[in-house]
């Protein structure tokens, strides 16, 4: 049983490890705390795979565990600091030829990520999965909500973020 769980963990990380890193980045701005969160996600996933019985896809299981761990992390962080973390910086990207375009993209990405950090945890989970390219039906499976509800929430969150982005992104979350 342990060997099967270890094998499944290795396969899940090979397939979804990059997504987990991006997810941690969407939940935690501080690089040190982000590494801690990612480690917590990996531990939670490894522990949970012994309970995986194939009733959903491995991807759905991975996202479900990761988002539950991340949501718990945010709740603990709020208890400790009683405020959301601030965005420190985006990870370094390769420098393109056009330095100004690169700077503009990084600024826009940082602004968007900061606005996502201010969303309610449920809305943050939904939009992060959406930004990973997941469809409403698979997000619904992860979140335990209906696909119609998820599609509606995605539409509203995108509209809210778009409006805030156009207004400078200085508004508090919902």
| Name of the top-level CATH class | Mainly Alpha
The CATH H-level superfamily is PhyR, sigma-like (SL) domain
Stated plainly, the CATH topology is called Butyryl-CoA Dehydrogenase, subunit A, domain 3
- The topology string of helices and strands comes to HHHHHHH
Strand content: under 5%
Helix content bin:
over 70%
Report, as a whole number of angstroms, the end-to-end distance. Answer: 44 Å
Structural class: mainly alpha
Query: What is the level-2 CATH architecture name?
Result: Up-down Bundle
Main β-sheet: number of strands, strand sense, barrel status? none
- How many domains make up the coordinates? 1
**Average pLDDT value?**
81
Shape: globular
Output the number of helix runs: 7
Keywords:
174 residues
């Amino acid at each position: 049983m342990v060997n099967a769980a270890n094998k499944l963990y290795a396969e899940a990380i090979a397939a979804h490890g990059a997504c987990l890193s991006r997810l941690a980045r969407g939940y935690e701005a501080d690089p040190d705390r982000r590494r801690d969160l990612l480690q917590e996600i990996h531990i939670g996933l490894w522990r949970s795979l012994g309970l995986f019985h194939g009733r959903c896809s491995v991807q759905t299981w991975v996202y479900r565990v990761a988002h539950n761990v991340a949501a718990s992390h945010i709740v603990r962080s709020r208890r400790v600091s009683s405020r959301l973390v601030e965005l420190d910086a985006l990870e370094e990207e390769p420098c393109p030829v056009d330095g100004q375009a690169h700077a503009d993209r990084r600024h826009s990405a940082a602004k968007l990520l900061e606005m996502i950090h201010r969303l309610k945890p449920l809305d943050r989970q939904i939009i992060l999965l959406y930004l990973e390219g997941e469809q409403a039906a698979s997000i619904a499976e992860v979140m335990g909500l209906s696909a119609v509800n998820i599609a509606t929430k995605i539409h509203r969150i995108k509209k809210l973020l778009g409006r805030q982005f156009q207004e400078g992104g200085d508004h508090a979350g919902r």
